[in-house]
């Protein structure tokens, strides 16, 4: 389909010429960890967003590693930034740096990060899902999310970063909060507007009670490091409680891509029988996803496909608590098979948000004896995004 082609790479242009068209590429150097020899391999990734195609070039051997092939729908232009990880054909690729100035100018001219705190009021009033839905509805991409519980000192530090007074300190140390980092066009101002909207719609007569955003670029950077940085862990991370009244729920990568995280959380909050006691974004590679799901191999159909889906991008893990949490939440999630769920339990999570037997919106613990193992695997053994 593609005749002999010639590469043209300059500082300001990276295009591919053939007899039919000139294709503009976004190019970046990526790293893939090969588990067999335990080596990190570097590749040049070229993505043609207009044509919906992608290819890779092995830098060391100087040969094509991946021929021009269809670009997965899960990879978007705003995913290509240094430090991020993407999944291409079941391989987790870490973006190291842009390959040319044209790509750097194209992808960094507008996209910035900012961070906000969704306070205890969102959780206590069952409005966490509503707040996150507001964020998702603006086009901002949630790239990090973590439930936190601050000590008095940490609450004071967080309030200082937010440029708030002692009332905010009191609110932050009252109970758990959720830290959220977003990426988007002019995200700093956009997130402040979103938090104002959340406060107006959920807070009614109160001010800054439900959501508060970083006030400037410096505060956004420092708040992100404060909440998510690995150099200093928060004192009460994770906020899990474990025990017989806890179960594990994972909102799958496809649901995050389709911006239904908030809606699924609202569905969990709606019956007012569950407490979401811990949550965070995690990124599982194929070995991790396979190990996590190993007890389900041979039990549920499409095990290999389920592993690939769970490792295809960030997921959101929850500890959900209630009396008889495992069996009760399994009913809320619905049958594994989405079509069956729609037929016999049409109001369940999988019936409403699932697509098929693999992209069925959520994973939930099947047996009570597995719940603590699943929760500890995620919250104790892995680092959040």
What does this structure look like?
- The chain has 385 residues and is an alpha+beta fold.
- Helix content is 33%, strand content 29%.
- The strands form 4 sheets. Strands 7-6-5-4-9-8 form a 6-stranded antiparallel β-sheet, covered by helices on one side. It has a 4-stranded antiparallel β-sheet with strand order 11-12-10-13, with helices on both faces.
- Strand 5 and strand 6 form a beta hairpin.
- Helix 4 packs across helix 5.
- It is globular, with a radius of gyration of 22 Å.
- The N terminus is likely disordered.
Which helices and strands, and how do they pair?
Elements: E1 6-10, E2 13-17, E3 22-24, E4 26-34, E5 39-48, E6 53-58, E7 63-70, E8 85-88, E9 91-98, H1 101-108, E10 111-118, H2 120-124, H3 128-137, E11 141-148, H4 152-161, H5 166-172, E12 177-185, H6 187-202, E13 211-213, H7 217-228, E14 246-251, H8 253-257, H9 261-269, E15 275-282, H10 286-292, H11 303-310, E16 315-321, H12 325-333, H13 338-344, H14 349-353, E17 362-364, H15 371-379
Helix pairs in contact: 3-6, 3-9, 4-5
Number of separate strands: 17
Strand content: 25-35%
Shape: globular
Main sheet makeup = 6 strands, antiparallel
**Structural class based on helices, strands and sheet pairing:** alpha+beta
Share of helix among residues?
25-40%
Strand order within the widest beta sheet: 7-6-5-4-9-8
């Amino acid at each position: 389909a593609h005749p002999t082609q010639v590469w043209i790479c300059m500082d300001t242009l990276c295009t591919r010429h053939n007899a039919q068209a000139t294709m503009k590429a976004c190019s970046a150097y990526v790293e893939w960890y090969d588990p067999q020899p335990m080596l990190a391999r570097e590749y040049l990734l070229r993505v043609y967003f207009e044509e919906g195609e992608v290819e890779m070039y092995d830098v060391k051997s100087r040969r094509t590693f991946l021929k021009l092939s269809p670009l997965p729908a899960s990879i978007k232009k705003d995913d290509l930034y240094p430090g991020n990880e993407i999944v291409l054909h079941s391989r987790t690729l870490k973006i190291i740096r842009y390959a040319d100035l044209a790509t750097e100018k194209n992808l960094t001219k507008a996209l910035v990060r900012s961070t906000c705190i969704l306070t205890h009021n969102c959780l206590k009033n069952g409005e966490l899902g509503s707040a996150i839905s507001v964020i998702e509805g603006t086009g901002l991409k949630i790239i990090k999310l973590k439930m936190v519980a601050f000590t008095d000192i940490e609450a004071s530090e967080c309030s200082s970063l937010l440029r708030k007074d002692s009332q905010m300190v009191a609110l932050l140390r009252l109970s758990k909060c959720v830290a959220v980092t977003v990426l988007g066009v002019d995200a700093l101002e956009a997130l402040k507007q979103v938090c104002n909207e959340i406060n107006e719609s959920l807070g009614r007569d109160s001010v800054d009670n439900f959501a508060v955003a970083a006030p400037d670029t410096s505060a956004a950077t420092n708040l992100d490091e404060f909440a998510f940085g690995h150099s200093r862990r928060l004192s009460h991370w994770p906020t899990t409680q474990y025990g017989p009244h806890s179960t594990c729920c994972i909102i799958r990568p496809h649901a995050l891509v389709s911006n239904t995280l908030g809606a699924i959380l609202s569905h969990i909050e709606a019956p007012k029988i569950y407490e979401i006691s811990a949550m965070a974004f995690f990124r599982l590679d194929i070995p991790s996803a396979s190990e996590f799901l190993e007890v389900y191999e041979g039990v549920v159909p499409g095990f290999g496909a389920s592993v690939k889906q769970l490792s295809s991008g960030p997921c959101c893990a929850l500890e959900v608590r209630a009396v008889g949490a495992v069996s009760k939440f399994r009913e809320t999630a619905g049958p594994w098979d989405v079509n069956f769920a729609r037929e016999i339990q049409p109001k369940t999570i999988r019936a409403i948000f699932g697509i098929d037997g693999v992209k069925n919106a959520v994973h939930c613990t099947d047996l009570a004896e597995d719940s603590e193992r699943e929760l500890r695997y995620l919250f104790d053994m892995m680092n959040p995004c």
